[in-house]
UniProtKB/TrEMBL annotation:
Keywords: Hydrolase. Residues 81-197 form the MurNAc-LAA domain. This is N-acetylmuramoyl-L-alanine amidase. InterPro entries: MurNAc-LAA_cat (IPR002508), N-acetylmuramoyl_amidase_3 (IPR050695), Peptidoglycan-bd-like (IPR002477), PGBD-like_sf (IPR036365), PGBDSf (IPR036366). Pfam families: Amidase_3, PG_binding_1. SUPFAM superfamilies: PGBD-like, Zn-dependent exopeptidases. The keyword Aminoacyl-tRNA synthetase does not apply. SMART domains: Ami_3 (SM00646).
Length: 366
């Protein structure tokens, strides 16, 4: 059963059909046994992840995504292409990993290649393949084997421009191990996304390491918990793991407060800023003194010296105490509490310096 997914925001009018190649258990579609990890890697472990990441990026850019084989079953090729044709997909992209002789020894080829139907190099499919190749050649260093022609079913039976990508060799050990490297999977997904966006003339906004409206799951929940710790309350929804409008508003508020671009996307920059804010918060809690005595200048120190020693208090200048809360409880010895950061004050300020020192003596006598 193919699955058509609508973007969380406005649809841009384009539908991309994505094909993850094979079923999970399709015979032969796996690496040789890999000593280092004690097993074989199935081709679909890679293809499926790339399609999943890729579809998220496309959805975030307003595309509709048609997953022509969303299950682990070995969906027949005729079914895949029929689903794309019936849903009027604008393009068809099939993600694969190559195989040569099923052994890590021998000729041991490596690298990426792309396929279009014979004679289509100068047609839209060829243009799509060129856009994809431009980005697939970036990132992790791999041999580029070129854009080739082949009479594959998914290239022949599709009514729309179709490209099949081979993103490495299962029987080259280095590239085999890349298949289960999450960073590589995300990189390949983002490269596909950039190629597809360029083909349609849609500007690239963000890759897979972004959370935005419509996302759900553990990463969203963690982000929400962090925002809550920092005082962004999300209209009381709490950390529910669902990136809704209240969460977006909280992200935007945080971005505004931290001089970031206010776009509501939780990307690498915003994430880093949240981490810094949390570190500062934790530092603040650890270092927060129990008690401080605030004075206007060090000329006032003799008047409060006994107080500071007896109460084991920190001494702080008013100018500092106006910028940040210097302790949980603050004794004010002159000048009153106006403008000081904090909520728990003991104000010993008198009308005169003499009265203040008298108040301090009375306080210590209690
Ligand atoms: Zn394949």
């Amino acid at each position: 059963m193919a699955r058509l997914i609508n973007p969380p925001g406005k649809w841009n009018g384009r539908t991309v059909a994505l094909d993850d190649g094979h079923g999970m258990e399709t015979p032969g579609k796996r690496t040789p046994y890999i000593q280092e990890i004690g097993r074989q890697i199935k081709e679909n472990e890679f293809n499926r992840k790339v399609v999943q990441y890729l579809s998220n990026i496309l959805l975030d850019h307003g595309f509709r995504v048609l997953l022509v084989a969303p299950t682990d079953e070995d969906t027949p090729l005729s079914y895949r292409t029929r689903a794309a044709n019936q849903n009027n997909a604008d393009i068809y992209v099939s993600v694969h990993y190559n195989a040569f002789d099923g052994s890590f020894g021998g000729a041991d080829p490596n690298g990426i290649e792309l396929y279009v139907y014979p004679g289509y190099l100068n047609r839209p499919a060829g243009r799509l393949a060129s856009s994809l190749a431009k980005y697939l050649r970036q990132g992790t260093d791999q041999n580029f084997r070129g854009i080739k022609e082949a009479n594959f079913h998914v290239l022949r039976e599709t009514d729309m421009p179709a490209v099949l990508t081979e993103n490495g060799y299962m029987d080259n050990k280095r590239e085999a191990l890349l298949m289960i490297d999450e960073r590589f999977q995300k990189e390949v997904a983002e490269e596909h996304a950039r190629g597809i966006l360029e083909y349609f003339g849609v500007p690239f906004k963000r890759g897979i390491d972004y959370l935005s409206l419509g996302d759900t799951g553990a990463e969203v929940k963690e982000m929400q918990e962090n925002l809550l710790k920092l005082g962004y309350t999300m209209n009381g929804y709490g950390a529910d793991g669902s990136f809704g409008p209240a969460t977006e508003a909280a992200v935007k508020a945080f971005q505004k407060d931290n001089n970031l671009e206010v776009d509501g996307f939780y990307g690498p920059k915003t994430k880093a800023a949240v981490q810094i804010a949390l570190d500062n918060l934790n530092k603040g809690e650890e270092e927060m003194e129990k008690l401080a005595v605030v004075i206007n200048s060090f000329a006032d120190f003799p008047a409060v010296e006994a107080l500071v020693i007896r109460k084991n208090a920190l001494i702080a200048l008013r100018a500092v105490a106006e910028k940040r809360q210097v302790a949980e409880q603050i004794i004010v010895a002159g000048g009153g509490t106006d403008g000081l950061k904090g909520s728990n004050f003991i104000d010993l300020t008198g009308k005169t310096r003499y009265e203040t020192s008298q108040n301090i003596k009375d306080y210590l006598a209690k």
